[in-house]
Amino acid sequence: MLADFIQYDFLRHTFLTGLLIGIIAPLLGTFIVVRRLSLIADALSHVTLAGIAFGLLIEKKVAAGIITPLYSGMGFSVLGSILIEKLRGVYKAYEELAIPIILSGGVGLSVIFISLADGFNTELFNYLFGSVSAVSKTDFYSILGISIVIIIVIRVFYKELVTLSFDEEHAIVSGIHSKRIHLLFIVMTALVIAASIRVVGVLLVSALMTLPVAASMRLARGFKQMLVLSIIFGELAVILGLISGYYFSIPPGGTIVVISIIILLISIGMKRFSLKSKGESELK
Asked: Distances in Å between the alpha carbon of 36 and those of 30, 41, 92, 98, 185?
C-alpha cells in the first residue's frame, strides 16, 4: 500500500512531511494539554487561515511569487502567537480572554481576505482540509527545518517547559524566565500549526495536537511515557490517514482526525477494561 508513496516524488514528500508532523504536533500538544491551553491551537489555526487567504489574495490581485500562502500563513500565525502572549499580560486576571480575541480576529480577517480573493477555490480547499498532493519539495524542506528547530528547542528547554507546565509559581521562584519561555513555546506552536496545514488542513490541525495526547493520557503512567505514546498515536493516525485519504480520494485531514478519534476510543476502552479487571482481581 505504500508503494505509490515511495514511487512518486509528490507523494513521497507528503508522506515524509506527514511523518514529521506526526512527531512535532503531538510533542508540542502534550505540553499544550498539560498547561490547559488546548484552545490556543484553534485560535492560531484561524489566524493561519487568515494568512493563507491573504497570500492567495496577493497571488491573484497583485502578483504571483511575491509570497506563497504557506509562508504568509506562518507569518500571521507567529504574529498571532505574539499578540496572544501580549494580551495575556494585559488581562492578567483573565488571561484566557486573549484566545477568543485572537480567534475572532483570525476568523474576521479570513472572511474578508477570502471574499476579496473571489471566494473558495480548490487551492484554498486543500489548505482547509489537507491534501496528499499539495506538498512540494520546498515545502518539505521548510517543514523539515522547522521540525529540527522545534526538537532541538524542546531538548534544550525540556526541564523548564515541564516545570512551567506543572507548577508555574515554582518555576518562577526557581529563577526560570517564564515570559521568555512562554513566548518561545507559543511561537513554536504557531510554526507547528502553520507547518501542518499542507497535510492535515488548517481547520483540523488542532485535533492532531490534542487527540493523540488525550488518548495517551488514558494509558501513560508518567509524563515521558505520555510524550512517547502521543507521538506513536500521532504517527499512526497520520500514516493511516494519508494512505486511506489517497486510496479513497478524500482529504487526508478528515481521515487523520477520524483515526485519531478511533485511537482515543480504543484507549478509553482499554483503560476501563484494565480498571474493571483490576477491581475483579482485588475482589477475588
From this structure: 10, 11, 16, 14, 14
Domain of 71, CATH number, reads 1.10.3470.10
- Establish if 248 belongs to a structural domain: no
How many angstroms separate the CA atoms of 117 and 119, rounded?
6
Per-residue pLDDT, 5 = 65
Location of C-alpha cell 507567529: 78
CB 211 within 8 A of CB 102: no
Q: What is the DSSP letter of 93?
A: G
Give the count of domains, the chain: 1
Residue 280, pLDDT above cutoff 60: no
Average pLDDT of the residues in 143-169: 88
What is the pLDDT averaged over residues 64-81?
A: 85
Q: What is the extent of the structural domain holding 118?
A: 8-203
Greatest extent of the chain over all pairs of C-alpha atoms, in Å = 75
Q: Please calculate the CA angle 241-246-250 and round it to the nearest 5 degrees.
A: 80
The answer to whether residue 35 is domain-embedded is yes
